[in-house]
Design goal:
This protein is an alpha/beta fold. It has one domain: Alpha-Beta Barrel (TIM Barrel). 29% of the residues lie in helices and 23% in strands. It has an eight-stranded parallel β-barrel. α3 links the parallel β3 and β4. The longest helix is centred in the middle third of the chain and has 11 residues. The protein is globular.
Length: 194
């Protein structure tokens, strides 16, 4: 069964609803974004979650000390790196790291990229690190998904996620803008349909 991460959570209400609908993981953005969270707000939301819902902190080119501080303070289950972080940076964080690989038409990610992390394939967009609402050519993900578990992101909605899962066969999907009313505010009907 494909796991589901709902990213860009900014309220207790949205987090509780996503958890009730069966989300396996919730993502909290700590980088500059309309979905950016403060540490205190994230702590409030995380404390409200039922057991067994994983928490993921999303960072973009942050100082490693900041990532470690947030991970420890919030007791995050996983850390997601969505910038230009290196293999050495990833290894310094240890286990339970997701590394975003931005895919553009014509760029086919190599199966051996960032082997010390789980990779998340997302759409490349100039000046944005995620939440673009645009899908990339899923055929570019096929070779990687055959050889290792991948998380598929980028423009996934209730209307196209089943097709994406069938074509790529990812370990998990990551949705954000595809289940929103506006950045940072989730559409509960779309979450229910996801």
């Amino acid at each position: 069964m494909v796991r589901v991460k709902i990213c860009g959570i900014t309220s207790v209400e949205d987090a509780s609803f996503a958890a009730a609908m069966g989300a396996d993981a919730l993502g909290f953005v700590f980088a500059s974004s309309p979905r950016q969270m403060s540490l205190d707000k994230a702590l409030e939301i995380i404390r409200s979650l039922p057991p067994f819902v994983q928490t993921v902190g999303v960072f973009v080119d942050a100082d490693i000390e900041e990532v470690i501080f947030f991970r420890n303070r919030l007791r995050l289950d996983l850390v997601q790196l969505s910038g230009s972080e290196t293999d050495a940076y990833i290894r310094a964080l240890g286990s339970r790291v997701i590394k975003t690989v931005h895919v553009a038409n014509g760029f086919k990610p190599a199966p051996d990229i960032f082997t010390s992390a789980t990779i998340l394939l997302d759409t490349a967009a100039h000046g944005l690190q995620g939440g673009t609402g645009k899908a990339f050519d899923w055929d570019l993900a096929g070779d990687v998904a055959i050889k290792r578990p991948v998380i598929l992101a980028g423009g996934l909605t209730p209307d196209n996620v089943a097709t994406a899962v069938k074509r790529v066969q990812p370990y998990a999907v990551d949705v954000s803008s595809g289940v929103e009313i506006e950045p940072g505010r989730k559409d509960h009907d779309k979450i229910r349909r996801q």
